[in-house]
Amino acid sequence: MGIVYNEKAKEFHLFNNEISYIIKVLENGHLGHLYYGKRIKHREDFSHLLEIRRRAMAVFYYEGSSFSLEHIKQEYPSYGAGDMRYPAYEILQENGSRITEFKYRSHNIFKGKKKLEGLPATYVESDEEATTSEITVYDEVIKTEIVLSYTIYEELPVITRNAKFKSFYEEKLVLMNAMSLCVDLPDAKYEMIELTGGWSRERHIKTRKLEHGISSIYSMKGTCSSSNYNPFIALKRPNTDEYAGEVYGFSLVYSGNFLAQVEVDTHEVARVTMGINPHNFNWTLKNGEEFQTPEVVTVYSDQGLNKMSQSYHKLYRTRLARGYWRDKVRPILVNNWEATYFDFDEDKIVNLGKKAKELGIELLVLDDGWFGARNDDTKGLGDWYPNLNKIPSGIADLSRKVEELGLSFGLWIEPEMINLDSDLYREHPEYVLRTPNRHLSNGRNQYVLDFSKDEVVEYIYKMLEKVISESKISYIKWDMNRCMSEAFSQGNDSEHQGKLMHKYILGVYKLYDKLTTQFPEILFESCASGGARFDPGMLYYAPQTWASDNSDAIERLKIQYGTSMVYPLSSIGAHVSAIPNHQVYRNTPIETRANVAYFGTFGYELDLNKLSDEEQEKVKDQIQFMKEYREVIQKGTFYRLTSPFEEKYTVWQVVSEDKKTSLVGFYRPLQEVNTSYKRVKLCGLHAEAEYEVSINNTVNYGDELMNLGLSISDLSSGEFTEKYDGTNGDYHSRIYVIKQK
Ligand code: DGJ
Questions:
Q1: What is the CB neighbour count within 10 angstroms for residue 660?
Q2: Do 37 and 162 have their domain in common?
Q3: At residue 108, does pLDDT exceed 90?
Q4: What is the C-alpha separation between 257 and 1, in angstroms, rounded?
């Protein structure tokens, strides 16, 4: 298992127990693609899989032959030398030509996986976990090489890919496009799944049938992968569901402008490309310079969407997230944002801390408004020192006071942004991204700092380093609340402008790297107006992400369900907030708010001092429940059972690794009457073992629960005989605890 190169057939076979991927060096030296999918038996020669038929109106490589690049599946195709479809890359040369020809030159197969310089990526802890092949292709005319890297994990149906360009050419080259991945799939009978939405309705699942032409999603927001489209697509067969059937997942480890596209040609080949968005990207390469693309992580499953998601969860939880917090259960927190917004002072925060401690909470997070002249969202961004009018003791003393209460202390920052009304702007107006002689638009009254300049990143780092190192800080929420506009790096030349969008994101990664290296025990949570930067790039630095500003339990069902398509529960920031909910004014029972928020990194986002005595008792129980089960929730295997996008009720389940404990979350937004009896088939249990099921108070064998199902019938299956108790009407939910006897 791993990667086998067959010298004679010039073929690479990447395989493990579950998947195979086959590459062939074609007769003209280009890299051809033979197969990607379920594991097939290894053999010395797969040449018979190559299909070459003469087709009319094609452009042929050799006179009198059938060899046309338009009709051969390729690994990293170019445009204009026979293939007329969208390419994997494009290089503009000084003479104006974009024609290139990269041919196989050499390869290097090794155990393990290399780091990507300056970029987040999945990794291995021991070289035995994966095998990598670096295949170098070379263009003789422009003396440029591309190293195409493929890593296959041993125990997961995962292949990662990236490409690195290096020029040895005396003339200047401009990379106009450099995708991380291209795969030519031999047929197009797929539906494309995307995670789409907007602010407060992030990562809703949308599915569309592939048709001739292009289906694509993208970000051109500059600062983020965006809440409009997550950098992920999946191609599933029409009959694939959560439990069975074929699906390919493609997930880009990147936080900026991206493009994911599937082009179906009129011969039904589906070409998937994914990488940095070529729009607004012109990367000049000079002699000796390199360009490294981000990584794409592909997962293949023939056991439905749950299996695909579980493969991503495992990989991203244990081999993308890193550091001190990777394997630890996450602290239960209270965040003051929805409790106070900007209207707080030191006493309010300390009082919130006191109540939090009494209820069992572990971490107090001070959100926006603690710094500079920040009393509303028009001022202060950029001035990362305490607002002494609000916090007279300063952050250092406040953090100590909170620690003395027996809680950890966390702080909100938004390092990439600036208000014009700030000391930073008055001192360094040149730090702002803005096009000379043009109007400058704002977002939330704020402007974007030029993180493409090392000097700016360093300046912000120093300010943050000071406040963090002077204080007792255990957690940082790194927020980012606007997209780029009129972006231009002041004082830099036109070459720099072509690199700006990507360099900005590299600057963000640089600051994350510096802070997480300097403060390795701080838990980082990324955030961008809620979940506008919930992407694998962020998870490399910050193991959890605030999923959405929408904290309503019913809205959260869709958001968290969609998020789980790729991201593990340990990464999904989810809190109980006040009612009426601040985004949709819905009143849901406190039980349901918690029952949804448990399936993530749990916390509260409300004024605990305003809770009634009865509610406080409930909150205490909730915290105790989460402490007991967070290990199972955050590290277990997650199954989506019924979808909020398709069904009247949502059910999901998590199972501990040893299969002895499982939690089933049942959520029913609207009550019904005199309906059918209901069962839902569970997953992942020991068939032969006996399990005690809470609520129903029954003992069931695992095979009963998995084949017959868990009974979720309630009073809605007949006449109403019970009284309304505040929870058994609309917005009702239950958590079934299932334990092996
Ligand atoms: C947007 C975030 O999503 C919120 O949670 C909060 O931190 C605000 N920003 C603060 O300005």
A1: 16
A2: yes
A3: yes
A4: 36
Same domain, 239 and 257: yes
Query: What is the Å distance from ligand 1's center to 479 Cα?
Result: 7
What are the tens digits of pLDDT across the range 476-511?
Answer: 999 999 999 999 999 999 999 999 999 999 999 999
Number of domains forming the structure of the chain: 3
Query: Is position 328 within any domain?
Result: no
Query: Cα of 480 to ligand 1 centre, how many Å?
Result: 8
Give the C-alpha separation, 487 to 213, whole Å: 31
The rounded distance, in Å, linking the Cα atoms of 532 and 496 is 26
Are 364 and 407 within 8 A, CB to CB? Answer: yes
Give residue 337 CA to ligand 1 midpoint distance, Å: 7
Domain boundary among 273, 294, 319: 319
Shared domain check, 435 and 407: yes
Does 543 lie in the same domain as 450? yes
> Where would I find the beta strands (DSSP E) of 239-293?
247-253, 258-264, 270-276, 283-285, 290-292
Could you write out the DSSP letters of every residue in 562-626? Answer: HHTTTS-GGGEEEEEE-SS-TTT-----HHHHHHHHTSSEEEEES-GGGS-HHHHHHHHHHHHHH
Residue 327 lies in a domain: no
Q: Which of 199, 334, 412 has the most ligand 1 atoms within 8 A of CB, as the residue to mutate?
A: 412
Residue 290 belongs to domain with CATH number: 2.70.98.60
Span 237-256, pLDDT tens digits: 999 999 999 999 999 999 99
d(CA 306, CA 72): 33
Q: Is 390 part of any domain?
A: yes
- Same domain assignment for residues 308 and 419: no
Which residue range is the domain that position 61 belongs to? 2-319
Query: Counting beta carbons within 10 angstroms of the beta carbon of residue 368, is it exposed (0 to 12), middle (13 to 18) or buried (19 or more)?
Result: buried
DSSP 3-state of 211 = coil
Give the DSSP letter of residue 55. -
Question: H or E stretch including 546?
Answer: strand 544-546
Q: Which of 319, 351, 372 is the last residue of a domain?
A: 319
Residue 572 sits in the same domain as residue 695? no
Residue 492 lies in a domain: yes
Mean of all residue pLDDT scores within the chain: 97
Mutate which of 333, 337, 604, 605 for ligand 1 pocket (most atoms within 8 A of beta carbon): 337
Q: Which residues contact 115 (CB under 8 A, 6 or more apart)?
A: 121, 123
CB neighbour list of residue 532: distance below 8 Å, 6 or more residues apart:
199, 202, 221, 224, 225, 226, 227, 480
Give the domain CATH number at 458: 3.20.20.70
381 and 526 together in one domain: yes
Kindly tell me the sign of the dihedral angle through the C-alpha atoms of 718, 719, 720, 722. negative
In the reported structure, the alpha carbon of residue 529 is separated from the centroid of ligand 1 by a whole-number distance in angstroms of: 6
Q: Give the whole-number percent of the chain exceeding pLDDT 90.
A: 98
Cβ atoms 287, 502 nearer than 8 A: no
499 touches 513 (CB < 8 A): no
| Domain co-membership, 355 together with 251 | no
Q: Which residues line ligand 1 (CB under 6 A)?
A: 337, 367-368, 412, 479, 481, 527, 529-530, 546, 549
Catalytic residues: 479, 549
